[in-house]
Design brief:
Order of helices and strands: EEHHHEEHH
Strand order of the largest sheet: 1-2
Number of strands: 4
Distance between the termini: 31 Å
Structural class: alpha+beta
Number of domains: 1
Helix content: 40-55%
Number of helices: 5
């Protein structure tokens, strides 16, 4: 145990370090819980059933608008995010505070593989992000958490 005595004040460095670690853990846990809640909200707000691209009108758009219409299709699908079918992905989203290489970090995510596919897309399906927008929204809202 290290003790420092300054002008009749005794500092207990290990106790101060433990208190700081405890506060850091508590703060990161709050951040993780907030991101987890926002991600679940994003998954819930996307509507029921799998998201599908809009079908072209029977005649198709006017020739002048075809390029613009085609360019909007992937964006429309991605903007809706993943649809809710069983709720398994939403239920599997968790957070944990861990020590990695001497740094305390918070991890938010899921152990379901299709959560990754929904977030980043595949070669056949557009990305429907739900976790990154949750973090971005909270970073904009709570800048003091990330300083």
């Amino acid at each position: 145990m290290i003790r420092i005595r300054l002008k009749s004040v005794t500092l207990n460095i290990p106790r101060i370090m433990r208190a700081a670690e405890k506060k850091t853990h508590r703060g990161l846990s709050r951040v993780g819980l907030a991101v987890e809640a926002r991600a679940k909200q994003n998954l819930s707000a996307m509507g029921a059933g799998p998201a599908r691209a809009k079908k072209a009108p029977a005649k198709g758009p006017p020739p002048a608008d075809q390029l613009r219409w085609a360019a909007q299709q992937p964006r429309d699908v991605a903007a809706r995010g993943p649809g809710v079918v069983t709720g398994s992905l939403r239920a599997s989203v968790t957070h944990e505070v861990v020590n990695v290489g001497g740094n305390t970090v918070v991890r938010v995510g899921t152990d379901l593989m299709y959560g990754f596919w929904q977030e980043y897309g595949t070669r056949r399906r557009a990305a429907r992000p739900w976790l990154r927008p949750a973090l971005a929204a909270l970073m904009a809202q709570r800048r003091s958490w990330f300083r």
